[in-house]
Design a protein that fits this description.
The complex is a heterodimer. Chain A is mainly β. Chain A contains no helices and twelve strands. In chain A, strands 2, 5, 6, 10, 11 and 12 form a six-stranded mixed β-sheet that branches. In chain A, strands 3-9-8-7 form a four-stranded antiparallel β-sheet, with no helix packed on it. In chain A, 38% of the residues are buried. In chain B, strands 2, 4, 5, 6, 9, 10 and 11 form a seven-stranded mixed β-sheet that branches. The chains are: A mainly beta, B mainly beta. At the A-B interface, strand 5, strand 6, strand 10 and strand 11 of A face strand 9 and strand 10 of B.
């Protein structure tokens, strides 16, 4: 089957420190994976943070970066210097480029980031 | 920009009761989705709809009905609520296909508690 595994539970980081949230995927049915990071800020709905559809490419948004590594089947989320406003729940997701209706999105369990001032 | 509105935000029901959640979007998106999120589990697709009056079952459709009478709205019914059931239901919409594949817009969620 297809699955996404990301850093479990809660990650606590001090403001201005670096962050990495791990995400690895496994697929038996998707020939051309699309990879996504979504974020849920307190009191808001889930929203797309960044996406990458081509292996080897890097996506970036709001200071966050993630590189699609096909060899290690990974899509880790990184930020060099976090801010308190980055406190949120982050979800890694795997999609199929050729399933346009998005019905085959596979979601990680979410990682809660707490940034301490 | 647009918005997705889910009602109610909190829903408390009794075992065996039929309960309905509603979702409205003003993005003019064709496709809408209902996901269930349980503690410790990823989002699981219940139903989706690619156009008005269309319904497609997801991985978790048993025990649920859905309705898409208008392009802008998508409702989900729990046909018989189970005791001790607690989950968050998320509604989403998207443009299907092309460069926007994978870009969903979500509501804030509806939290269900069954007593």
């Amino acid at each position: 089957g297809d699955s996404v595994t990301q850093t479990e539970g809660q990650v606590t980081v001090s403001e201005s420190k670096s962050l990495i949230i791990n995400c690895t995927y496994s697929t038996t049915s998707i020939a051309y994976p699309n990879l996504f990071w979504y974020v849920r800020y307190p009191g808001e709905g889930l929203q797309l943070l960044l996406k990458v559809i081509t292996a080897g490419q890097k996506g970036s948004s709001r200071g966050f970066e993630a590189t699609y590594n096909k060899e290690t089947t990974s899509f880790h989320l990184q930020k060099a210097s976090v801010q308190e406003s980055d406190s949120a729940v982050y979800y890694c997701a795997l999609g199929d480029r050729y399933v346009g209706d998005n019905s085959k999105l596979i979601w990680g369990l979410g990682t809660s980031l707490v940034v301490n001032p | 920009g647009g918005i997705i509105t889910q009602t109610p935000k909190f829903l408390i029901g009794q075992e065996g009761q039929k309960l309905t959640l509603k979702c409205q979007q003003n993005f003019n998106h064709d496709t809408m989705y209902w996901y269930r999120q349980d503690s410790g589990k990823g989002l699981r697709l219940i139903y989706y709809s690619i156009t008005e009056n269309d319904l497609q079952k997801g991985d978790l459709s048993e025990g649920y009905d859905a309705s898409r009478e208008k392009k802008s709205s998508f409702s989900l019914t729990v046909t018989s609520a189970q005791k001790n059931e607690m989950a968050v239901f998320l509604c989403a919409s998207s443009i299907s296909g092309g460069p926007n594949t994978g870009q969903l817009y979500f509501g804030e969620g509806s939290k269900l508690t069954v007593l």
